Amino acid sequence: MEDADRTDATGSPCAAPSAVITALTQAPLGIAIFDREMRYLAVSSRFLTDQDMPGDPALVLGRRHYDVFPNIPARWRELHALVLNDGQTRRHPADPFPQPGGAVEWVNWSMSPWRDQDGEIGGLVLYCEYVSASVEERLRLEAAEARYRAVFDQAAIGVARVSPDGLFLEVNGGLCATLGYAREELLSLTFQAITHPDDLAADVSRVQSMLEGRIETFTMEKRYLRKTGDLLWANLTVSLVRTADGAPDYFVSVVEDITPRKLAETQQARHRDQLRLMINELNHRVKNTLATVQSMAAQTLRHERDPDRAYGAFEARLIGLSEVHDVLTRENWNGAALHDVAMRALRPFSAAASGQIEVSGAPMRLTPSAALTLALVFHELATNAVKYGALSNDTGQVALTWRASPSGELRLEWRESNGPLVTPPTRKGFGTRLIHGAFKGELRGAVSLDYASEGLRCDMRAQLPANIEAFMPLPETRRSA
Predict the structure, then answer these.
(1) Domain holding 66: CATH number?
(2) Which residues pair with 109 in a beta bridge?
(3) What is the C-alpha separation between 388 and 242, in angstroms, rounded?
(4) Helix (H, G, I), strand (E, B) or coil at 136
(5) Which of 81, 174, 424, 436 is deepest in the core (most CB within 10 A)?
């Protein structure tokens, strides 16, 4: 019987014209045409081979679909019935279809009713295409995207996609937390807007080199400005993603906060500088101390012929010098209070003259060199008082006072009273030369010695605006040495 004359039991046509049947049979897609009883009217070879059957349509024509495939799932039977009953087309772009061996094939299918000349539903047309390869590729891409998204969103460091002109296209939570911006705020900014001005030129230059194809990636340490205005040091790594035709698409920027490391490096550098300064200062102080000791020894021996007396005088001066060194060491050689310097320098003399020495003056601080110089001056004045002045008897009194003038000049006064009658010296000894030399040199001032008969008066002035600083306002210090 010819295809064109084939009819079913109700008289409905069972086949299309032979040319259409031939074209359908050879179609590269899975197509099957059924009547209302789901009997095959026409089918493509591809439809059969996709079902692991021989590609001969004659094997199924006139047979019910459910007889050819008795294990077809109930879900598909229900879909067929729905289309035949309501005449609505149904489709799915990627529907999982279990295979007998347990594998799953993904099918792109559609079901549409066909109608006879009277408009009645005569059956349905089933189109199906196995799209497992494309679906599996899409699933792989989706899984990769999910992994990328998890890494992007959960990374502890900042990650961003940036347009070629610098606008943030996408930012992760790490970058928002690092820079202190909300995500929406960052997406309205460019990297240029939050880069420290001193680092912008170097950053832009590297970006331009990437756009021109001279480099593929770069890493640099740069500074960002947080939303609060605080400085952020970061290690920045940038790569450029290009389109299929090679045009710049976007940058991937990885921002690692290295502010703690930079602060530590700065602190280490500061400590190294301080250590170097301390070593240089120590060398300077040792040299100065040795020079002072050498000068004291030379002057003492030159003017004191008696070895025993020379030894005693030299030892006393060394002790006075060491007392002030103790004060400076206690203060880490950052200076010393004038009152402490005076008390330490006069302590060897006050032990033998209890209550005879009184020290008073405003709280003031001296640099190390000024402290050592004034200690030697106080020692010489006290030594002279023990030998010839107010400390040579039990009734004499010594008063050391000081004050600072508005111009920054330090004025000190040494007053002796109730001692033996004073007579001016016939020659200028080592102590006198030391006192005059100290104020003329280190202290940049002047000394006036008045050998009044009732007691020595020594007025001293020092220009030390850079070497003396006032403490917090305190009551005037007044103490007996």
Answers:
(1) 3.30.450.20
(2) 92, 128
(3) 97
(4) helix
(5) 174
DSSP track, 325-352? HHHHHHTTTS-EEHHHHHHHHHHHHHTT
Q: Is 234 helix (H, G, I), strand (E, B) or coil?
A: strand
User: What is the value of pTM for the model shown?
Assistant: 0.43
Would you call 369 helix, strand, or coil by DSSP? helix
Residue 323 is encoded by which pair of tokens? 């007392």
Q: What is the CATH number of the domain that holds 358?
A: 3.30.565.10
Contacts of 336 (CB under 8 A, 6+ apart): 324, 327, 328, 365, 366, 368, 371
Model pLDDT for residues 156-168, shown as the tens digit of each residue: 788 999 999 999 9
Q: Are 162 and 130 members of one domain?
A: no
Q: Which one-letter amino acid corresponds to residue 185?
A: E
Last residue of a domain, one of 136, 163, 190: 136
* Three-class SS state of 288: helix
H or E element, residue 353: none
Q: Within 13 Å and on the Cβ side, how many CA atoms surround 234?
A: 27
Residue 474: DSSP 8-state: -
Residue pLDDT, tens place only, 315-339? 666 666 666 566 556 545 567 888 9
- Domain span at 31: 3-136
Q: 174 burial class (0-12, 13-18, 19+ CB within 10 angstroms)?
A: buried
